[in-house]
Amino acid sequence: MQRFTRLVQPKCTQVQRRFFNIHEYQSKRILKDNGGKVEFGIACTTVEEVEAACAKIKTPQKVVKSQILAGGRGKGHFVDGLKGGVKVCKDTQEAVASAKAMLGNTLITQQTGPKGQHVNTVYVTEAVAGIKRELYLSLVLDRKSASPMFVGSAEGGMGIEELAHTNPEKIKTMKINVAEGIDNDACVAYAKELGFTGTVAERAADQIKVLYNIGKAKDCTMVEINPFVELENGDVMEIDAKLSFDDNAHFRQNEIFDLIDESQIDPKEVLAAKHELNYIALEGNVGCLVNGAGLAMATMDLISLHGGSPANFLDVGGSATEEQIVAAFQIILGDAHVKGILVNIFGGIMRCDIIAEGVVNACKTLKTDVPIIVRLNGTYENEGKKILSDSGMVVHPVPDFETGAKLAVELAQARK
Ligand code: ADP
Ligand code: MG
Fold this sequence. Notes:
single chain, Dna Ligase, domain 1, Rossmann fold, seven-stranded antiparallel sheet, elongated, binds adenosine-5'-diphosphate, binds magnesium ion, metal-binding, ATP binding, ATP_grasp_subdomain_1
């Protein structure tokens, strides 16, 4: 599950929020270092490393797990038809063959979108024997109660998304009062609700506390364990782990944010982050360069209203520099689908002349023939417009927002 909102409020999936995600093997290292119970494993990027890892893994069976920043791997498939991004293998030979087939391949799951994600690392782990039950357990931030909340279900494993829709009553929750902290008795009672009994319920409660403490200490927006398992011998374990972090906590979680795997992120988004631009790639063909998130959203709406489709969300912020504007153009034009760019600026703190300088500079350096439609309004508007007209560049100035959106859609469609 990508985010908790998807589990309980399917209508909210369109809310654009980005959280920093790390791989399963990285999440499990954090769990292990903080009292979690995870199986032994080694992250590998080559077949030779997989062979060496298998020699260190004590169980005869080995599990080979594709490391991508999305769930649903077990039920996923690769672009070449290979089934399953998680394979329980009977021996080293099978594990090596599986890893060979996965490394360098692209895995498509319910969460990756149709393009899938490239697998450049596999996590080779011990096979956990004697699994009695697979549960779903996650710690999320509940907007309604404005508190951390555990979400769990005795029927976890790989079908949790369906369960949330078909049998929502089977999802059990426990809210935590951050001021009071997590309470042991409440954890034991919650573990019992999830079907644990006796000393196993106490073990499960201990792990619930471990997960809460990690979530709190590391500024997690989500700690998702699916499956959280009960073993025949009465132990409990976290067999899959997905941690997401609040981007706003970057400044105090440098060690975690250093774990970034840029190979798994759209390079345009990586470049945008470097230039402190608020950018999200979308599927359409009209590139947008806007100041202010609200105006950016409204721009996307107006493009859609006029029959077009935005290629991105891009908010240059309130005080962008000329360099940032050039970088923004570079990012927008890095998307081959872009057939027109709408620059929609309402100059408040942002000066229209700085935007105009940026547009001219970008046109000169990037030498694009994609039509650029510019609406400038507000601070230093006349200076900005003069810079554009004096530049000799082919840009399409428009008097207002709606005219701009219409023209951008028209020109983009004409280039198809
Ligand atoms: P995903 O959620 O992306 O499909 P998981 O890590 O949850 O990936 O693996 C899918 C399923 O594979 C699990 O529900 C579990 O049944 C099995 N599995 C995963 N890791 C192990 C392991 N180390 N030992 C035994 N079974 C495992
Ligand atoms: Mg899982």
